[in-house]
Amino acid sequence: MGTIREGAEQAVTNCARVQPRETTVIITDYATEHIAAALKDVAETISPGNVTTLILEHYGDRPDDGSNPLSLPDEIVEALQHADVSFFAATAKKGEVGSLRLPMTKLISDSKRLRHAHMPGITDELMRMGMCADYKEVQKISARVGDIVKEATHITVTSPAGTEFTAEFSPSLRWVVCDGVPRPGKYTNLPDGEVLTCPHNISKGVIVVDGILGDYFGEKFGLLEDNPVTLDVQDGRVVKVSCADDQLLRELEQYTRQDEHADRFGEFAIGTNTGVDRLVGNMLQDEKLPGVHVAVGHPPQMTGATWESKVHLDGVLKNVTIDVEGYVIMRDGQFTF
Q1: Cα-trace Rg, the chain
Q2: Which member of 151, 210, 277, 315 has the greatest number of CB atoms within 10 A?
Q3: What is the pLDDT of residue 176?
Q4: DSSP letter at 9?
């Protein structure tokens, strides 16, 4: 593993690619302020005097129980509208997906110039591991996977834990290669390394999430090796949830009932960051592990999907085999090319 400073240099120079005289906005909170400081130090060496740090707690409370999630502050909206580059490096709080983070990524998607690095839940470990990966290698693998899947009409995924489903794809829904480099008017998660789309359908199947769940579930329930979540799928939606952990089961069932599309699969993704060799209990990095993760709820806007949800919940599957129309590109969690 590297250092936080090395991870910050990677994020600022090789990923966001901050240039002289560009304006950078860093959104952070008290828990991750030291990571934001490292990002700022690097950005200041490139574009002195043009870096602003905004701390979320300055704009309101952020209760852990999600009872009153912080909305996107007007001050942050204004700052982003005048920035060239932005980072969101803060903890992930319950309820803030819909109140703060989705409105922010929509603002970024509507922009013509802003390049955004999204780092919800960033930690020291992620800065030292996933952010210190060889991003030239990540870009190479991501491009290869993108070339293989971009014309696919269906992909079958299986795993030793019992996953077995076939996702169907439409040419009207784009595949997006996320290789650590946000383009103008776009955002990418850091650490990065995935190729994703919104599936047209998953007609029927079983998905066993034995890695980790996203949103607040990862922090609360941790890795799922001993308590995997089984999702029965029909017509692109979750029709049954099973789990030995009763509390996790109850909260998942409530989560997938929050709105019309909270139980609908909005994302299918293949992780491509070979610098990530194990799960660490943080979705931001764990979903980049070579393999598959899927999500219910709001689809990534850059795919061209037009339906909406106020939630987005990822689930990582371990040791998968990926069959792209007869071409097995991954076997038991290892790329075959």
Answers
A1: 19
A2: 315
A3: 96
A4: H
Residue 40 to residue 96: CA distance in whole angstroms: 24
Domains and CATH numbers, the chain: 4-131 (3.40.1830.10), 134-335 (no CATH)
Q: What is the pLDDT of residues 113-165, one digit of tens each?
A: 999 999 999 999 999 999 999 888 999 999 999 999 999 999 999 999 999 99
Residue count of the chain, please give it: 337
302 half-sphere exposure, CB direction, 13 A CA radius: 19
Is-contact 243 226, C-beta < 8 A? no
CA distance 335 to 320: 10
Distance separating alpha carbons of residues 19 and 83, to the nearest angstrom:
12
Q: How far is Cα of residue 44 from the mean position of the Cα atoms in its chain?
A: 27
The pair of three-digit structure tokens given for residue 85, joined into one six-digit string: 């580059």
Distance CA 122, CA 29 (A): 11
Kindly give, in sequence order, each residue whose CB lies less than 8 Å from that of residue 151, ignoring residues fewer than 6 positions away. none
Under the banding of pLDDT at 50, 70 and 90, the label for residue 194 is very high
Alpha carbon distance 13, 29 (integer Å):
22
pLDDT in tens, 198-219: 999 999 999 999 999 999 999 8
Tokens of 42: 């690097």
Instruction: Using DSSP, state whether 126 is helix, strand or coil.
Output: helix
CB 4 within 8 A of CB 127: yes
Query: Are residues 87 and 35 in contact, defined by beta-carbon separation less than 8 angstroms?
Result: no
What DSSP letter does each residue of 163-174 carry, written as one string? -EEEEE--TTS-
Reported pTM? 0.84
Reading the block at residue 38, the tokens are 């490292």
Tell me which amino acid residue 104 is: M
Backbone torsions φ then ψ of 108, nearest 5 degrees: -65, -45
How many CB atoms neighbour CB 58 within 10 A? 10
What per-residue confidence (pLDDT) applies to 1?
A: 82
Which residues are paired to 149 by β-bridges? Answer: none
Residue 45 near residue 106 (C-beta atoms within 8 A): no
Ramachandran bin of 163, using left for φ above 0, alpha for ψ from -120 to 50, beta for the remaining angles: beta
